[in-house]
């Protein structure tokens, strides 16, 4: 075999791959633009006023799984109590915490033990007690043996009284109108929509007091700014473009409302999964297709939830590895869907997209970087290939990010200062140089861990978003 | 060997980057300018706040509150929006709409023909909020008669006509109701008064299921006992969803002519009917219903048990009945529900 030929084929494959991805992203960007622009400057409160009437909305159960959250749980609940929605209940599930999580709740909200028999529609670890607040009858705490987040959510689901539920992490802050915004498509569609997700933004750098967002700001830490751009890009571009055609696969763990009926019907959250939320959404899609239901999963571009992201390389690294493993698990568990025409556009477009671009993308990109470094030493024709690859990766790293920043400023405009936009734009420009290669490397490490069957999850350290 | 590809790509890159930078420049200038305009509008708002408030409460026109130019008008619009949420009183409302009609009509007429969907939508919201009756004809012409209008615009326009008690409302709702969801129709009918509602009730049979349900919902909100005869006959004559909704409305009104006609619902195969009859019994407070309610407390559906518990607890001797169930029943779910309602009585 001729080495030159092999290298050339290698370089060309990467090139073709990248061009395909760029074309795909461009199409999605275009759809997102149309969708977002339509609602540009629509009054943000008027459309929801009518939904505040109790007889119109559907009540929602908010499930807050808590494992060793003594620092934040009281704050989270307090912020939830102030949300603007006619009828809801809060169910905190204490998943066998080893700290004072339960005690904090008991003291703060005067919880009393109630005798309730719960219909066990989903198998969970044993529930030890159920408490109800004396002062706030819609606040419950379920105390159960430790079984992981999915198990805690299932216990909450068994208990929930209302037809819709949402799961919320302790490190997230909701906008006041979050539920109105996310429930609107469900109500508007006459309940044809069975799950609805909202856009997630980054809380680091924002001013949050008592669990309420006071002022939107941008963090000074480069690694956070890069994540802000990444979220903007993922949410503004990817999810809206995909949502238009019922292709949406992920409702972020940070914020989504689901129909309880359909989630229980599909078996609840799967235990021992890293990405239980994505897995659930894939499963719902699968059930919709298998039963031939006329149901949809949608996504609302309006930011409704602010979440804390890692501020150090170490934590970010383990988060990215974990996400990548979660992605793989969901795709692998439902591999039957891949390229299966029975599942329509989900099987033919969505799943292949996640396999080829989201999951395998990092490997191709990494080999591109390896090639670039190699060619610096080899010289000759390889330099040209290297430049070609570099330009392409700049196109799909930096340029799409820059476009997302502009799309945000063109439509939703959450950042008030001119300087913020300049900062975001310039950081986006540098993405290909450092941030992108790093995340690619981390995601490849995730793949490596899957191959080695390493199941360590890595923990996220919480600083607490609220002051 | 790659020179063509490279040069094409480089040119493309330079082009895209230039384009993005130009766009950035444009957006930044726009942002800076809008921040400035925003500041100006906020200043105007402060300047006008007190005089406009005085005008709204007294009705005396002064030169102070004659806005000239677009920024001032926008400031006024925002002020009126703030005020319309908090002000009460017939006269104040009238002053507010007079004022809006005088200064904002021209701007809104223009907005209704705007190419921007969100602009048209916002304008429709404000026309309703400010009760600008003089724009009614424009709403009909520009939105309702316009085949290109979106569903949201149609709905909001119908809301406007309903709120204004417009004679044209009946015509348009009959024309448009088949394409609207029940939720939308309920939302529109929420604004309708008895006179318009009577017209719709007379022609009830001709309408789509969605509109029928919406009408029943409106009756339920009005809580007017005059409609009981209509509801009872609708309940008798229909089946399925309409029957159920009629029963729901009766349960909400809490009145029926003859209670014995509803007793058999205790054994209805439809759980919603069992729940609603339990709810109906809460208002009627008739001892003849107790045996039925005890049975419903043992129902397989949580919602039925919940409602039965609620109703029993509302009876004067409710606690005794609940205690009896707790002591004698074999059914854990029924006992649980009884205990829960017993506790609620203690806690509150």
Automatic annotation (TrEMBL), chain A:
Record flagged with keyword Metal-binding: no
Keywords: Glycosyltransferase, Membrane, Transferase, Transmembrane, Transmembrane helix
TM annotation in the entry: 12-34, 343-363, 369-392
GO molecular function, one term: glycosyltransferase activity
Species this protein is from: Paraliobacillus quinghaiensis
Family note: Belongs to the glycosyltransferase 2 family.
The protein, known as: Glycosyl transferase family 2
Keyword flag Transferase: yes
Source taxonomy: Bacteria, Bacillati, Bacillota, Bacilli, Bacillales
Highest taxon in the source lineage: Bacteria
Automatic annotation (TrEMBL), chain B:
Keywords of this entry: Membrane, Transmembrane, Transmembrane helix
Domain of life the protein comes from: Bacteria
Family matches, as SUPFAM superfamilies: ARM repeat
InterPro entries hit by this protein: ARM-like, ARM-type_fold
Transmembrane feature ranges: 6-29
Designated name of the protein: HEAT repeat domain-containing protein
